[in-house]
Amino acid sequence: MSVGVSPPGTIKTLAIKLTVCFLKGARHKSDGLNDFVDREPFLKAQREVDEFRRFQRLSAELIAVNEKICRLRPVEEEAGMWTAEEKKRLLRSIRRRCGK
């Protein structure tokens, strides 16, 4: 599976958006444990929060690794840059196809 090349900061932006979505969904009308009459919903919510914190930690690690890769990756030549020999071959090929 290929991740492809993405601009620096893309993963960080995604992680922030996911964090905001999660927090918006986690809001309740009142604060505190009174929302949970039964203990099981509280434990489930606590597991979800723990899993979300794990996700945040893993996202931060992924961002750090991604930034290191971006710094260490050699800069590639721009696509579309032709060498002199490639230009000659391309022009010959075009002339042959056009019948000139």
Please describe the topology of this protein.
Blueprint: H1 10-25, H2 39-72, H3 84-98
Q: Span from first to last CA?
A: 45 Å
Low-confidence stretches: none
Strand content of the residues, in percent? Answer: under 5%
Number of domains: 1
Instruction: Assign a percent range to the helix content.
Output: 55-70%
Number of helices: 3
Task: Tell me how many strands there are.
Answer: 0
Could you give the order of the helices and strands?
HHH
Structural class: mainly alpha
Q: Main β-sheet, in a few words? A: none
Average pLDDT confidence is: 75
Return Rg in Å: 26 Å
Report the principal-axis shape: elongated
Could you walk me through the main structural features you see in this protein, from its secondary elements to its overall organization?
α1 runs antiparallel to α2. The mean pLDDT is 75. The chain is 65% helix and 0% strand. It contains three helices and no strands. It has one domain. By secondary structure, it is an all-alpha fold.
